[in-house]
From TrEMBL:
This is NAD-dependent protein deacylase. The keyword NAD applies. Belongs to the sirtuin family. Class III subfamily. The active site is at H109 (proton acceptor). It comes from Croceibacterium salegens. HAMAP family: Sirtuin_ClassIII.
Amino acid sequence: MNDIRNIVILTGAGISAESGLRTFRAEDGLWEDHPVEEVATPQGFRRDPDLVQRFYDERRSGILAAQPNPAHDALARLDRAWDGELLIVTQNIDDLHERAGAARVLHMHGEGLSAWCTVCDARHSWTGTLRDNPPCPSCGQAALRPDIVWFGEMPYRMDEIFAALSRADLFVSIGTSGAVYPAAGFVQGAKEAGAATLELNLERSQGSHWFDETRLGPASMLVPQWVE
Ligand SMILES: CC(C)NC(=O)[C@H](Cc1c[nH]c2ccccc12)NC(=O)[C@H](CCCC/N=C(/NCCC(=O)O)S[C@H]1O[C@H](COP(=O)(O)OP(=O)(O)OC[C@H]2O[C@@H](n3cnc4c(N)ncnc43)[C@H](O)[C@@H]2O)[C@@H](O)[C@H]1O)NC(=O)OCc1ccccc1
């Protein structure tokens, strides 16, 4: 770690699995009983907004009931101690990184505890439900949707992510299957920028061959070991 200054860490559903939040592609994964095109696309929302609002209302209450696990805690310790550049880019919509105390976190696919008004474009932290179409606290219109990046929509703050990847000396991927782009392509970008690449995952991901090193096991064990 001595010549490492700038670190980019990508996290996926696997880092929150041991906090009781379901992953997407496991046999009991979220997408199993909710076809992704129905609940995580703008077309699905237009077709059946009530179904989508219920899906995310459920996810929101699950997030509120969950607690950070040792993997989140270890990354928060690293974030506090690291005086070089560090960015935790998460695909997760939960707030467990922040609740563990991490500050340098970027939610590229949005946040479950946030509502977005499609009329006045305001965003509001939200812990209640949206299925009953509450009015937007800013403009009063009943036009709130989950502040989530759905398939076919552009992920958030991509310019900041690419800038950090271009400066990275080390890219670490934790708990992600590497099935969804553009996140699944970050390891290539980091490698081209000359970064060392490390994967910490329960099983090899679709992009494993891009990593210099892959360590297999539960995040709650692998991440504290790597940070210490
Ligand atoms: C299916 C896939 C092929 N499709 C895509 O990638 C699409 C289309 C596409 C774009 N470019 C491409 C290139 C090639 C092919 C397709 C595409 N991408 C998009 O649509 C993206 C947007 C994608 C974002 C969609 N939203 C999500 N989430 C929010 C919703 C929600 O959360 O409900 S994606 C969602 O699924 C993905 C799930 O992946 P993981 O997090 O990895 O979870 P998964 O269950 O798959 O795996 C868990 C892993 O953890 C491991 N694990 C389990 N337990 C543990 C444990 N305990 N410890 C350690 N590891 C563990 C497991 O082994 C496993 O490997 C995450 O990104 C997650 O955020 N948008 C876009 O490209 O916009 C374009 C654009 C360009 C210009 C202008 C306008 C638009």
